[in-house]
Amino acid sequence: MKRLEDLFIRSEKEFKSYHNLVDNVFDQNKTLPQQVFCKNFDCFLFQEFDWALSDDILPTIKELSNVTLDREFLTAVLQPDPTEYYLKEFGYYNWLKTSVNISNEDYVNALWTHPKGSIADDIITNSNIVVWLSHSLQWAIWGDRDMEICIIGMVSTKDSVKNRL
Fold this sequence. Notes:
It is a single chain. By secondary structure, the chain is an alpha+beta fold. The chain is 32% helix and 22% strand. It has a six-stranded antiparallel β-sheet with strand order 1-6-5-4-2-3, sandwiched between helices. It starts with 11 loop residues before the first helix and ends with a helix.
């Protein structure tokens, strides 16, 4: 198992690559209740925000990824700003690139992993807007702490994950 710190994106090139994926799915200039999804998903499920920052989200992500054959997923904090705040303060991004095979315990521990000397800057404590997505872009999740909601967007198929969730 990798060290949990190794799950965080540190390279600017890798960050930009993942940022492009995020931009393909979400309109980061909008906030709820505006339409934050710019990709055409035709199925939406709703959950409480606290669900998303617990090990309860992982079975859903694994199920989504199983249908779309994704092997990894991204957990990305959009607010506070990953470059203007997190990179500037701590030298890396508060974005996790994670295998779908990660254990619930390791995933939650990664969410609790904080920069050295700043215990209040782990993802669970210091995140207002968090998104989850995969390379397939067949599903994505937008979480908004202030609105206390998560929206799971997905593309329906004949083997639709919505039927399995």
